[in-house]
Amino acid sequence: xxEVGNRNDLQNLRAQRxxxxxxxxxxxxxxxxxxxxxxxxxxxxxxxxxxxxRLWFAIGCCCxxxxxxxxxxxxxxxxxxxxxxxxxxxxxxxxxxMKVNLRxxxxxxxxLLLFIPGLLGxxxxxxxxxxxxxxxxxxxxxxxxxxxxxxxxxxxxxFRTPGLVGVVQSLxxxxxxxxxxxxxxxxxxGAVFVIGLFxxxxxxxxxxxxxxxxxxxx
Length: 218
Known about the structure:
The protein is 81% helix and 0% strand. With 218 residues, it is mainly alpha-helical. The protein has a single domain, classed as Up-down Bundle (Four Helix Bundle (Hemerythrin (Met), subunit A)).
């Protein structure tokens, strides 16, 4: 019976994962279109030749992202606490809505730790107002993806996937910045080494979790 139950659990997990991942292939082309439209459709940003100016613009973009995505999430939780029994955080009276907002907040903090350094690094490797449009485009797509994630999460946990396109963007930007940095320090060998370490880590994580899944069936 345990083996049958484990197999049923695995089948349910696979079905949920399949549903979860359907949104990403739909959202990815839309996000790419928005990014490209902003990257090449915006006017070049003025006075971006100096690194301090590019840094300040990137910091400003980070501030806007924190304001719209993190602070609004904090406010959503705070306002609900003020009018419900969840005013006491230890009472365990959080509504389903608040629990989603708390999950969104935690995820947004995690994603900011990827987004901010990647964006600052991207600004460093842009050298003029035209290339700095990539920083603006990356910020806009990330903010929109956070809203899609938040709204989708309230519809149901499996509907949050389209918003994960912002996570993919942060990953790509961070990989680009790390590769450029490693190349500056140690040439192409350094870039290959750093990216290779990340790829090996990803492969190991996929393998170890797959092994754990197989072990539960044994």
